[in-house]
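Protein in question quoted in full.
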Amino acid sequence: MNLQVLDYSIYLEPLYLLIGFAVFDIIIFIIAIILMCKLRGLKNRYNIFMKGEDAKSLEKIILEKLDEIETLKVSDRKNKEDILKINETLLLTFKKVGIIKYDAFNEMGGKLSFAVALLNKKNDGFIINAMHSREGCYTYIKEIINGQSYIILGDEERQALDEAIGKV
């Protein structure tokens, strides 16, 4: 058998080639028109943005805004420092309170005596005990450190301390 090599050559007629290039040119032309319209819109927005005496007016506005930002940074830094000072002060303030009213001497009939415990966050503070009687009022104060007293506490004072600490 004799094998023949088939020669396939692509032959385009010039008319088809010319029509193809014309369609390609029309597509490119349409794309160019769309891009010019978008460019015109962008130029309009740019002109509106730059509107003013000159471009320096925009520069002036930007510099003013940068100054405002710097002022805000300084103010923010100062506020943070103030907040830290306030938080440190709050650690020392008396936040925990315990109050117990009682009748110190049974002859009075009313609960006119009291024990007040005032503590900070670390359970440091004091207890004031005011005992009322017919002869007068006697007031005592006892120091509290870490929720403990180095002086013996009475029952009412212990109750006021426990209430302030939150054990009750």
User: Anything to note?
Assistant: The CA atoms of residues 41 and 47 lie 10 Å apart. Helices lie at 14-49, 55-92, 155-165.
